[in-house]
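tool=predict chain=A
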Amino acid sequence: MLPARQFSALRLADVLTSSLEAVCARQNPLGLPTVRKAVVILADGLGASSIRARSGHARFLSSRLNKSSIIDGVFPATTAAGIATLTTGVEPGQHGLVGYQVLDGARDRVVNQLTGWDGDMRPATWQRERTVFERAADESVPSFAIGPKRFVASGFTQAVLRGARYVAADTVADRFAAARSILSENPTALIYLYVAELDVAAHAHGWQSDRWLAQLETLDSEVSRFASTLRSDEGLLLTADHGVIDVPSTRHVLFDTEPALISGVRHVAGDPRCVQLYLEPQQTAGSASSAADTLADAWRESQGDRAWIYTRAEAVAAGLYGRVADEVLPRIGDVVIAARKSIAYYDSRPANQKARGMIGQHGSLTDEEVRVPLIRAGAFSR
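tool=predict ok
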């Protein structure tokens, strides 16, 4: 059974775009008032359900979290797709980052959208859309991206943050200090501030761990302190790219041990909770469609009680990737498996099984993974 996922009217794609519109004194999808300066914080991996579940450790954030301050991220619920959607204002089917790992069909290889950038997967062309920062330059609004030093020159940074001046700051506190300095030194500005620490802790220890809670408390304290410094013409939004669920190793499904689930599969990509399977090349479009249907049926027979299974055509028709450009279509798996139970799918054939050490997982369509906060402060407070 395929889910009839109804994405909400408020979307991650609107957050940074609306902030720029507010700086430019224009109406915007979020209804933000006019400001001179706007700050958007992206807390990687901070789902709305996690804030609710740990509200005592996030008093500032939870006090501003209500029904109207929860929005939809993207599918797949993964960082590459989510951040690209935030910084371009369009859905994955348009910007082209449709998963953590996807097929580069021209070179018959799987590429990692966060770390796999090279001369054949150029950031300036693989990510197809102009960024909000590039549009800000058109309006003479200076834009800044604040994040860890290790990401300064990464391919992913070049793909999704182009047009912004990157400001390196390795601790969460230093990033907020940098944001305050930029606000004080510029008459107008658009600032993107990235917090990776929650997601890192979740993958290694789980979002229910003490390590994750400590990072949540740090973020909450820093946001509260920073919000208290905001002036009347400075607005703040905090959101996330996805949420996280914990999956113990006892809930790993080694799908390659069931031959029917890998029959005709040439490449395995995606995330453990959103596997994308690419078939061997077919002679005709008709046979390719038939092969995808056959593989999807095999998955439904085996896993239909704990995963949503789509062919590419079904996923596109359901609008999971938004509008999909012709150039982007082949990057989506011939068959897509989205976990709906607390499980993660792994291929046990590759020698490197390091990924199976992750506890915190994301990628699928559950509310815990897709629903993210939209916390407002400063001039953007309601």
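The chain has two domains: 12-97+114-244+365-378, 249-361. The longest helix spans residues 285-303.
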